[in-house]
Structure formats: structure tokens, C-alpha cells
Amino acid sequence: MKLTRTEKREALTGYLCISPWILGLIIFTAGPIIASIIISFTNWDLVTSASWIGLANYQKLLGKDPIFWKSLQVTLYYTVLNVPLALIFSIAIAVLMNQNVRGIFLFRTLYYLPAIVPAVATAILWRWIFHHEFGILNILIGFLGIPPQKWLVDPHLVIPAFVIMSIWGVGGGMLIYLAGLQGIPSQLYEAAEIDGATSWKKFTSVTLPMLSPVILYNLIMGIIGSFQAGFTTSYIMTSGGPNNASMFYVLYLFINAFEYFKMGLACAQAWVLFIIILVITIIVFKKSENWVYYEGVGKGR
């Protein structure tokens, strides 16, 4: 259909209004993405001219770089521990914060505050908490008769220590779950009470199904965040040690790019991470059809 002069003017005005965003997307997002793909097939040290080497960077990562596989193992281990625990704790706290009790707004604020503390400040704070000689955590567990632990020195404890630190900041997920809980119609709980449902039955039969789309969202964001996590905290707290036990994927990517000046290898590593996250996300979306409930559609999509 042919546009009138007025419609053309309105369309042009609209495009002019969004042109800063379009230019920003092209220059600061699409441009670097395309550049990183090209750079991943080159050998570039940021100083001399880049030379085309084809798939050599990918072959080196996947076949000849043991630290790459170690960093991937560390990140997977962290993700497997962190994502389920973060979901459980954030849902539990959200349920508690959804109660109509006096001072609930203060408690919600207190639980949310750790989520907005800067990452560097969080890392410094928890480095002192986990200190194996005079850290407050070892003092607290000492009252339970547990001997002091070398949290950031023991290769077996360093990733659980990072998980504990991550659970401290579940306030962001808690806030999203709280919004989801407040969107559940109260009539469903009233009907469940009439049928004689217990509190646990109402939680499993009403709350969780109605909250499942929010759980899916937080699950996807948690997986993506866990694979991208670890740089700031491990860089400040452990520098990837001990014995590469906290060498997160993104930390090793940073080291390749800005310490070893292997920008082509780092770009290849970034695209490998993108493919891993994409595959896992697709699998989760496919499996979600069996447990995510959408009102008006039923189970699945």
C-alpha cells in the first residue's frame, strides 16, 4: 500500500528519533561482533598487523590448550553448583518476603542490597571473610566445632567459596520471583484451601506451576550469568589459583587477550563460549515445554 505524504513524514520522523540507537547498535554492538569473528581467524598481538591463519586458533583451543579445558571445567563446575542453589534460595527468600508482616519492606530492602554492591567491593569484602587465618567465616564455623578451612587456598574449596559468595547476592532473582508471586491470583489459593490442600500442597500445585515461566527466565539468565561469571572475583581474590582451580573461562579469555596479547585466540575463545551457551539455552528451552505452565495454554507452550 502506498503511503501518503503525511505517513511518509511520520515514518521519517520516527526513524530520525531512533537513529541514535540504530547507530549505536551498528557501531558499538554489531561492528565489534563482526570484527571479533574476523579476528578469531587471525594471529594478532594488538601491535603488529594481523595475519590470517584460518581455524588454527580454534584447533589450538580445542586440541592443544590444557588451560582452556581446565577453565571450561571450572566454569561448568561453578555453574552446576551455583544455578540450582541460587534458584532454590531466591525462591525461598521470595516466598518469605511475600508474607504480609510488619516491617516486610525493610527486610526486602536488606535482602536486595547485596545484589547492587559493586563487584570489586564484594570481592574485597569476601576475600577477608574467607581468609584462612582470621576470616570471620572460620570464626563462625569454629563455634560449631568445625576446624578452620583454607577457603581460597584449597583447590577443593575455592569454587564452593565462590558459590557461597554468589548466593549472598540472590536478591536480584528474589525480586523477580516476588513480582511473580504477587501476580498469582488469590482465587487459586482459596480454591485449594476449599479442597483441603495443605500449605506444601498449595506451594507445589499452585505456586510453582504459576511461577514456572519466571523460573525458566531466571534459569536461563542464571546459566548465562554463571558462564560469564568469575572474572572480577577470581581476578581480585585468587588470580585463577590455586593451581588454576579458579581459572574461570572469562578470566582465561582476559589473560589471553590483554596479558598474552593473543587477541585472535581470545576472540575464538569468546565464540566458543557463545556456542556453548547457545546450545545449552536451546536445550533448556526445548525441555521447558514439559514443565513450564502458561495460563490459557496449559503445560508447555
Report on the architecture of this protein:
With 301 residues, the chain is mainly alpha-helical. The chain has one domain: MetI-like (MetI-like fold, Orthogonal Bundle), CATH 1.10.3720.10. It contains 13 helices and four strands. Strands 1-2 form a two-stranded antiparallel sheet. A hairpin with a 7-residue loop joins strand 1 (42-43) and strand 2. Helix 3 (66-97) packs across helix 8 (171-182). The radius of gyration is 24 Å and the shape is globular. The relative contact order is 0.12. The mean pLDDT is 91.
Question: What is the general shape?
Answer: globular
- Overall number of domains: 1
Task: Record the strand order, biggest sheet.
Answer: 1-2
CATH fold topology: MetI-like fold
Provide the low-confidence segments as ranges: none
Helix content: 55-70%
The helix count comes to 13
Under the CATH scheme, which class? Answer: Mainly Alpha
Distance from first to last alpha carbon: 35 Å
- Output mean pLDDT: 91
Described by strand count, sense and barrel closure, the largest sheet is:
2 strands, antiparallel
CATH structural architecture: Orthogonal Bundle
Structural class: mainly alpha
Tell me the series of helices and strands, N- to C-terminal: HEEHHHHHHHHHHHHEE
What is the beta-strand fraction? under 5%
Considering the protein shown, what is the CATH homologous superfamily? MetI-like
The total of beta strands comes to: 4
**Spatial extent as radius of gyration:** 24 Å
